Amino acid sequence: MGKKKGKGKSQEEAASGSAPAAQQQPGGSHQPQPSQQVSPPQEPPQPTPSQGGGGKKKKKTDAVSQSKPSTGTGPPPGIPQGPPTPQHQMAPPRQQQMAPPPQQHVASTPQQQGPWGARGPQQQQQVPQQQMGYHPQQQMGYPPQQQMGYPPQQQMGYSPQHQQRGPTPQQQRGPSPQQQRGPAPQQQRGPAPQQQRGPYPQQQGGPALQQQFGPAPQQQRDPQQVPGPVSYGAEAQAVVQQPQRGPQKPEGSRPGSSGDQQEKKQPQRGTPKKDPLPTKQLAKVQISESSDTLKYRDVVPGTEGRRIKIETNHLGLSLGNIEIAYHYDVNLVPDTPKKYLRQVMELFRQQKFPKRYPAFDGRKNLYSSSPLPIDGTMSATIVYRELDGRDKEYKVEVKFANEVDMRGLRGKGQRGETPREALQVVDIVLRSAPALSLTAVGRSFFHRPEQIIELGEGMEMYNGFYQSAIRGWKPFLNVDVAHKAFPKSMNVMDALVDLFASDYRPVSREDLARGLERFQLEKFEKFIKTLKVTYEIPNAGATRRSYRVNGVGEPAAVKKFRPNDGPEVTIEKYFAEKYRVRLRYPKLPTLWVGNKERRDKMLLPLEFCTIEENQAVNRKMTENQTREMIRYAATNTTVRKDKIMRALGQARYNDNATVREFGFSVASEFEKLEARVLKPPDLGYGGNRKVSVAKGIWRGDRFVAGAVINKWTVVCADRAPRGDELGNFANMVVRHARDCGMTFTTDAEKPLQIIGNRQNDIKSFFQRSKGKYDVIFVVVPNSGPTYSHVKSAAEINTGCLTQCLKMITLSRKINQQTVMNILLKVNAKLNGLNHVLLTRPPILNRPCMIMGADVTHPSPDSQNIPSVAAVTASHEPKAFKYNICWRLQPPRVEIIEDLQAIVEEQLMFFYKSNNQMKPERIVFFRDGVSEGQFEQVIHSEIRAIRAACKKIQPDGYEPNITFLVVQKRHHTRLFPLNPRDSEDRNMNVPAGTCVDKDITHPFLQDFYLVSHASIQGVAKPTKYCTLWDDNNMSNDDVEALAYHLCHMFTRCNRSVSYPAPTYYAHLAAARAKVYIENENLDMNNLNRERQRFLIQDVIRKDLPMFFV
């Protein structure tokens, strides 16, 4: 869906069928160091006859499985001691997967172990089962915690003497032992300062009310919350290494005051000065509790990685000595067509102040570098000759509005919010150069190329460039190439021919003269609606007029009207009698133009209408048009840089009179700076094999945990395949599944069926298949609604797991690599584990929930289609498996409206999946938010996450939250200065290239990261910005976490351009769009409408990765 947005899959990233085949590396099994071992899941206990190993599935027991008490001298329970046998590598069949974990553990003890190691202090008080809605018989059936596969504690530096329940009392968030019987009066409002949140957020019950949403002033979090990597199950040891708190400070003192001598000895990076208001700590941003003002502070760039020299498409921008700009409001009467506004205002300037060159934004705003000679309101009547040759009068009024302070843009500026109005002034001034000669679309400018690039279906591609003034450590102008589809300027009849030539064999005017079928009429109206056409009757004198098309009308041979209250005639007869013109295509629809409120619609024969040139339209392109545009637009870095420099020569900023009047100047060369290439993570596969990543790609090996498929089939929902294509595909699946560690215990059920693509046939098939198969492979047409019908019938109506592939894949592209890519998805869908991170980010050392969120919007030309908000969350220690929640919300609303309820669902899922552990840390990757929405996100979505935690456990559950925005909608590109630093034929920077200074925000923790190897064209970096950080992560920590998660996308054996949780959120939103496709929705009650599309529990809960 078009986003923040309309996001589709990035062209530079791999999809199914494009990643390298996963093959076992030669040379035998690699034996990694103990600290790098990947421990595959332990074999589940063999079922007894009473447990239904091969017979009927036994009813779930009512007991809650708990961990065995640790003896303190061995690895945690469930760690395999050697290479797995084949049955170790596979998840149990669905009948076994649905069963609760084995009842071999006792109740929780201080030494209790779970999938994350020893329970930390936060986990000591369990959430009441009644409150959490948790019942033993409702367990999800995830593999026991023994299958989590963590390294033994001895290998992680774990010592038995440190195996205690948590930090020492004075380090805990809860009361000290002497306070447990009843606090003294002065202690009733909450813990003293030395009991503030330590290196791990404490979940122990009993804090006062002010702790339930955010800390009170005297309870500010310790700025140094993460001392470094912490071993699994060794939280106590890590806390012992923390310095002891100083003496208790009087209530109401602020962190950093003289009462805490110990904290004074540990100066923190970027520590803010004392502030009279208590503040919550943001990542390099603070938000005041009593005022919604953002306060910025310095950040320290990262140091990890190999340093390289690069250049970027940012040009240094000098703003001269200007301190104040003067803003004027402009009003034109009557309303002026947008394409005439600049010309009319230029005539006004020449008439009123010919020696001044203010900057006009093309709408309602005028800016000057010094006061204009205007006393009150200045007005004038301007006569302008429009394209149809008619002169039209416009009354222009200009009056002073306000002054704009420009000083905040100098250098790094002052700490504080980016002066957006000042930045807007710079943008408008610099746009004055190309605006009069080129077609402006947003911040881009286009011209019709000398060599026409046909995109098909009535569209062609224009070339152009994008420009935007940005604030880095100094002001910059970001310039990039731009491409856009424009309707071809041609007779509407020719456009009609071009529109349908791509659907069928080449057509002519005569082929369409007999009239259009219904689907053709709908397609034509969608194309022509909102376009401007020039109407002119041949040989009829001055009849040239310009109109905007509202829609289509009845054919001229059918539609009747009364001209001048005379007798009723058809449009065809009217033209024959009035203008002596015979219509050649009277059976084709007419064009409805003019005033929409007019009682009698104005209808024009389409053969007399011509589509005007240079019309920018915001429409979703077809797959064919997108493919053609990418083919022409995707170039290497050398060609792209040359195109940008040509655009700069065309704009000639420094020669423009308006730019000179303001004293601005633009550098003529790209900004050169230093970047760092981060080290990729090592990945673990089955058999304790370590796999290295090179150039963003790795060769897959046997899965860490391969799924077991007992019953499956292949069906075709398209035309009958040629020969035995279905059977050949089924054989390839079984053969290659064996290579990667999956097990198909039987061949596909025969006969392989052809169910056709009619919706009722698809529904009937899945009704018959309910509960019958572990997975169903479905061949669907290359386009059309069949895919939507399959997913809705399977996941919403019947609870069947499916894996779809297009007919073109089956008939032309089926090979080992394609099948292996399909199996990557199937294994994840069946709760398998493809690979794991061997080099783990420190934040994952304690229970941590990684979340991704995205909101996809309908295309601008869509009506009555809601936006879809989707949130994914990890629910196991390896951050490989995610589950989804989604909501419908009003179109183009970016803030997630129901985020609190979504986070509550995700917390519950995590809690049930991890032996009743709650996440101590939440890392939230938010896609699609612009800088102008940062404050709104902070005050809406971050608070919703806090509120969800409070709702789950009102007595003080407050996990550390790190909230990052992930941005792909920008035009920054990075180019290596030294060709030897490139790793591909397009001369891109290497995968892992990171920039966090110079062109980034001076007082926010943000950075650009190229995490993938581009398949074609110039790699587009992803921009990250930290809005909130309770975990106090350094730039190196955040950059490594984001980069590592880019290697955890299950669909391919290559790093992708943004983190897996964010990618999954996009896939989840796309799946929700599939469900509501072609459905009539009540836009006034979207929550009720969503209830129609609830996913079956057997899919949503038991197979949460079904959507990949």
UniProtKB/TrEMBL annotation:
Region (Disordered): 1-293
PAZ domain boundaries: 494-613
Biased composition (Pro residues): 74-86
Biased composition (Low complexity): 13-40, 87-98, 110-221
Keywords attached to this entry: Coiled coil
Stretches of the chain forming a coiled coil according to its record: 1069-1096
Biased composition (Basic and acidic residues): 261-277
Domain Piwi: start-end pairs: 775-1077
Keyword Coiled coil recorded: yes
Molecular-function GO term, any one: RNA binding
Family matches, as SUPFAM superfamilies: PAZ domain, Ribonuclease H-like
Entry's Gene Ontology BP terms: piRNA processing
InterPro entries: ArgoL1, ArgoL2, Argonaute_N, PAZ_dom, PAZ_dom_sf, Piwi, Piwi_ago-like, RNaseH-like_sf
SMART domains to which the protein is assigned, alphabetical: DUF1785, PAZ, Piwi
Keyword presence, Coiled coil: yes
Pfam name, any one: ArgoN
UniProt superkingdom: Eukaryota
Family designation: Belongs to the argonaute family.
PANTHER family recorded: EUKARYOTIC TRANSLATION INITIATION FACTOR 2C (PTHR22891)
Name listed for the protein in its UniProt record: Argonaute 2
Native species: Phaedon cochleariae
Lineage: Eukaryota, Metazoa, Ecdysozoa, Arthropoda, Hexapoda
